[in-house]
Structures are given as C-alpha cells and as structure tokens.
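Renewal narrative, Specific Aim 1. Our central claim is that a sequence can be written position by position from structural information alone. The example that follows is taken directly from our test logs and has not been curated for this report. It begins with the structure tokens describing the chain, in the order in which they were read.
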C-alpha cells in the first residue's frame, strides 16, 4: 500500500513538472488564456465527480462564502495564471525552484495569522529556504540583485507563491468542512467565470491567439487533465496513506524533475546557481515541514 502511494506521488510530481514544462512550451499563448483553457477542461473532467457533492454541500458554501472566495481567487484563479505569466519571462527551472518555497512561506503566514507554533529548527528551515530562493532570483550574484531589477518573471512567480500560500493557509483552516471534489468543482467553475472577462480584455490587447492549433490544444488538454484532475486524485489518496508531511516533502523533487525536463525537452540551460539554489531550498523546506 505504501509503495503504491510513493509511486503515485512520483506520478504527481511528474504531472506538476509537466504543468510548468507544457506551460513554457505553449507560452506563445497569453497566460490568462492558458489558465482559462486549463480550468475549462478541468471543470468538465471534474463534473461527474463534483456536481452531486456540490449540490449536497451548497449550504456549506454559503456559510463559508468568504473563505471560499479567497481560496478560489488565490489558489485556483490567479495562482496558475501567474505561473503562466511568469513563464513568459523566466525559465522553467526558476519557476519550479521558487514554487518549492511555498511550504516555508505558508508556515510563516500560519505563525502570523493563526498563531501556529513552530520549532527553532523549522525557523532555520524557513530562513534557509528563503535564502535559496533569493540566490536563484539573483542568479547566484547578490551584488547584481542590489544593483539591478530582478527578472520580471521571477517577480511574478513570487506573487504566485504568495497567492498559493494564502490559499494553503485557508485550506488548513476551512477545507476539512468540504468534500474534495465538490469544493474543487465549485472553485474551478467560479474561476472559469472570473477568467472569461479577463481573457476578453487580454485578447483586446494582444489579439485573439491561434488556440486551435493542434500542439496548443494538446498542451491545454494536458494541463486540464493531468495536473488539474488526475494529480488531484493521486495526491489526495497518497496523503491518506503517507500523511501530509511526507507527501509534501516528496513534492520537493519538483525542481529536479523540471530541470531535467527543461534541459532535455526544451533545451534550456541549467546554471550552477539554479542547481545550488534548488538544493538549498529543498534542504530548508525539508527542515520546515513536520514529518508525520
């Protein structure tokens, strides 16, 4: 049983890595367009699983409407949109490394807002994680970071991880009230409705993109089915067997998988600062997360 859970987690990491790599590969499309396409496919895939749960839990959604809206905007609507925006300007490796900082930032927000207690070792892990992230953003040259503006894509990705950390904080407080498929279906549907007018504005600025090209359609289909749907199921079942701590630690392999994929599939160069930065971030996050 545990072996199957570990295998499932490896598949989850591959799918999440694929989210970044495919997002980079089809970044000729505007970012909000990619996000809308992904979420539309995911909404359709989730409907048979989430619709009836959502109908039964509709009173709960009204009771917790503010937390539900915050989770929808931060975790579903804008997190993925900002990832695809970041990929317009920075590398897949940088996006994956910065994404790994999320657990450490979530711990900090938990201390500030819900007064969660953490150990000195966890605080040390937070500091190490942030130091590794700064190293990556500075491309291994802290003097350059002081003298110049960081890469626009890295700054957008920092905004994305703040969104997801706020989402994670609300998940810790409220998600236990809901059934997983129903709440994700509702949040995905609301996100689709929010993104439609945003995409209309995006197209008025950039022009309507050629979204029906076979390669781009295949990419959007992948994003909607694998990281948004199948990975959700596999991760949820793995957490039941392994516990949230061990499952989260395994997600630290995301930069490794992504850098390998970026190098072999997208011909991205992987720098020494990215490798060392990812090692530092992974080490710090592993110290931060409580192992169950």
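The sequence written for that structure reads:
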């Amino acid at each position: 049983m545990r072996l199957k859970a570990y295998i499932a987690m490896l598949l989850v990491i591959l799918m999440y890595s694929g989210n970044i790599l495919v997002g980079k590969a089809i970044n000729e499309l505007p970012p909000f367009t990619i996000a809308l396409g992904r979420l539309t496919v995911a909404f359709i895939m989730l409907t048979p699983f989430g619709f009836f749960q959502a109908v039964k839990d509709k009173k709960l959604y009204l009771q917790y409407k503010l937390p539900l809206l915050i989770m929808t905007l931060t975790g579903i609507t804008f997190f993925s949109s900002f990832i695809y925006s970041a990929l317009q300007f920075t590398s897949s490796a940088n996006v994956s490394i910065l994404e790994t900082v999320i657990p450490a930032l979530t711990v900090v927000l938990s201390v500030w807002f819900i007064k969660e207690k953490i150990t000195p070792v966890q605080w040390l892990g937070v500091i190490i994680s942030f130091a590794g992230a700064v190293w990556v953003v500075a491309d291994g040259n802290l003097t350059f970071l002081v003298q110049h503006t960081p890469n626009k894509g890295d700054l957008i990705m920092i905004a994305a991880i703040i969104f997801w950390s706020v989402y994670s904080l609300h998940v810790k407080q409220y998600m236990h009230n809901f059934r997983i498929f129903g709440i994700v279906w509702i949040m995905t549907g609301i996100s689709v409705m929010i993104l439609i007018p945003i995409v209309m504005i995006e197209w008025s600025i950039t022009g309507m993109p050629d979204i029906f090209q076979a390669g781009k359609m295949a990419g959007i289909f992948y994003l909607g089915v694998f990281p948004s749907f199948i990975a959700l199921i596999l991760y949820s079942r793995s957490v039941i067997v392994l516990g949230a701590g061990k499952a989260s630690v395994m997600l630290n392999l995301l930069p490794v998988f992504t850098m390998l994929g970026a190098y072999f599939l997208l011909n991205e160069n992987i720098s020494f600062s990215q490798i060392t930065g990812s090692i530092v971030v992974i080490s710090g996050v592993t110290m931060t997360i409580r192992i169950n």
